[in-house]
Design a protein that fits this description.
about 550 residues, alpha/beta, Rossmann fold, 4 domains, six-stranded mixed β-sheet, globular, binds adenosine-5'-triphosphate, cell membrane, ATP binding
């Protein structure tokens, strides 16, 4: 019995008892209990594959538990579909957005809750509600923008607005801050606190302990499908939570893992970058005056110039939605440049001579897309098929003519071992892997190709603390082998930890660039101002390259 009930108080908003769920050989949830007090922010943490998404998917009616009971406000309920969850006042903001990319923001928000037979009236009302919600919570978004044209950060706003508009009283957020800048994350947390004041109950899944400490009231820890601990946030520490999560003492963790786990500022000594490496040289990829407009004629990239050099990581920082995604699309051959030119070796790419992804891959360019579900994997294919996507004509797939299942399985098993993808099951469909493990497989596939140029978007989004260190290590290793890397991340800490140079994008332009000499507070605040479009980066005189062959480009 709930202590609240004994005390004659209100029952918890959510009570899960004895929830179990098995997928084939994997016991994703084992006898899980969870109580979430009404009007509280409750964190759920755990390593990749610990069972967090499965648990909240059961609450949201995506999966039916094999055993266990769900109570909402003290009443036992059967939630067998999302519609049933919504009817219980449960809203979900997904790790991977469930929006229709060809619909506008307004249409997406209306979808599934059209408000009766008079669509036009429903649309007018929804528009008004949407604008009210946007203003009230600072979630500005153009109702007429097509969702597919929006950057992931803006798509997330639509997801939140959609749930709020349906009157969610229990809101589940699965890794909501992965695409946000620190500033946007702060604003999201203000929104969550505001919702809490209104009595909304919030379940927050995140890998970031500093977020747990900043915004939650209670936190529950999962490990290998089981619920291993519940804590009041005020009476725990990031160290204790990290230990509960990984099942070993924090003291045994390497420094960078600790930094990622505890969210401590990585300032001062001990930066993970190998600063003593020889200076990088030739430009492997050059971009000059790149411009691109979307299907609605809106300019997304203006006069972008940059150089990716061998053996160097160029970090591209910026608030989501400022052209980074579009730049990745154009550089990876998904979109054609409308003005300007890209040079890779002897190959000149422009509007009249475009190059598609396959040709670029043949030129040694690999791409880890920001949105792994839309661009990185085919969820209905097995892991071993996904492990050669784009490289299916290579030796890993067979003899070059027919795909050999044995070769695919063997290749995939090796990748899974090296990148610690769990479960190590090459024949499992991609949809059967947790988000972080899908990400590891995409990275494994692209890194294994030993590219000369790597474009990598949000590499550690949704990835647990142990895997972050590993992925960062692999990216640095690739750089040290001479690969030219463009790292797009909304995590400023990630850019400061990995990049040799940083360029900042704002409103489709590169507004400044500087070499990073270490992680210092000055870098951070200067880049923050640049991201907000307030200042230009000042290149410190000492760090300015004496005779850069690329002077006049993004390094100017
Ligand atoms: N549809 C499915 N089919 C088969 N196995 C699945 C399915 N969904 C999840 N699993 C497995 O269940 C386990 C728990 O996955 P889940 O997505 O709940 O973990 P998670 O804690 O949310 O991880 P992450 O932090 O990586 O998102 C994993 O081993 C995963 O491979």
């Amino acid at each position: 019995m709930n202590p609240d009930d004994r005390a004659g108080g209100t029952p918890p908003a959510v009570r899960l008892s004895g929830i179990s769920k098995r997928f084939g050989a994997v016991q994703a949830n084992r006898d899980v209990d969870l109580e979430v007090a009404r009007g509280s922010i409750h964190g759920i943490i755990g390593e990749n594959g610990a069972g967090k998404s499965t648990l909240v998917s059961i609450l949201y009616g995506f999966y039916e538990a094999d055993a266990g009971r769900i109570e909402i406000d003290g009443h036992v309920v059967a939630i067998r579909s999302s519609a049933a969850a919504i009817a219980q006042g449960i809203g979900m903001v997904h790790q991977h957005f469930m929006l229709v990319p060809t619909f506008t923001v307004l249409e997406n928000v209306m979808l599934g809750a059209e408000g009766g037979p008079l669509l036009a009236r429903g649309a007018a009302e929804t528009r008004a509600e949407l604008l009210d919600l946007s203003t009230a919570y600072g979630l500005e978004v153009d109702p007429d923008a097509k969702v597919g044209d929006l950057a992931v950060g803006l798509q997330q706003r639509v997801e939140i607005l959609k749930a709020l508009r349906r009157g969610a009283r229990i809101l589940i957020l699965d890794e909501p801050t992965g695409v946000l800048t620190p500033d946007e994350t702060g604003r999201l947390f203000d929104i969550l606190r505001g919702l809490r004041r209104e009595g909304v109950t919030i379940l927050l899944i995140t890998h970031k302990l500093r977020e747990i400490m900043a915004v939650t009231d209670r936190v529950s820890v999962m490990r290998q499908g089981e619920m291993v601990a519940h804590r009041e946030t005020a009476s725990t520490t990031p160290e204790e939570l990290a230990e509960l999560m990984v099942g070993r003492r924090v003291a045994a963790m390497p420094r960078r893992e600790l930094v990622a786990a505890l969210g401590v500022d990585a300032g001062g000594g001990g930066t993970p970058r190998a600063r003593s490496r020889p200076q990088p040289n030739a430009g492997a990829l050059e971009v000059r005056g790149l411009g691109w407009r979307d299907a609605r004629g809106i300019t997304r990239l203006s006069d972008v110039s940059l150089t990716l050099r061998e053996g160097e990581i160029l970090g591209l920082a910026g608030v989501a939605g400022n052209g980074q995604s579009e730049l990745l699309d154009v550089l990876s051959g998904i979109a054609t440049p409308q003005s300007g030119v890209i040079r890779i070796g002897e190959r000149i790419i422009n509007r009249d001579r475009p190059a598609g992804p396959a040709e670029l891959r043949a030129l040694g360019l690999a791409h880890v897309p920001e949105d792994r579900h839309r661009r990185g994997v085919v969820l209905g294919f097995t892991a071993q098929e996904n492990a050669v996507l784009g490289y299916q004509h290579g030796p890993a797939a067979g003899d070059g003519r027919l795909l050999s299942p044995a070769a695919l399985a063997c290749h995939c098993a090796a990748l899974m071992k090296r990148f610690d993808v769990r479960p190590a099951a090459p024949g499992l469909r991609m949809s059967g892997f947790s988000g972080g493990n899908q990400q590891k497989l995409v990275l494994a596939r692209e890194i294994e190709a030993e590219p000369r140029i790597l474009l990598v978007g949000q590499p550690t989004r949704g990835v647990d603390i142990g895997a972050i260190e590993f992925i960062h290590g692999e990216i640095l290793k690739l750089r040290d082998q001479g690969c030219a890397i463009l790292l797009v991340s909304v995590e400023l800490d990630e850019i400061l930890a990995l990049a040799d140079r940083v360029a900042v994008m704002n409103a489709g332009r590169i507004v400044g660039e500087r070499r990073l000499s270490g992680i210092d507070a000055e870098d951070r605040s200067e880049i923050g101002l640049m991201m907000a479009g307030i200042a230009r980066i000042r290149e410190p005189a000492a760090a300015r390259p004496a005779a850069s062959p690329e002077a006049g480009s993004a390094e100017a």
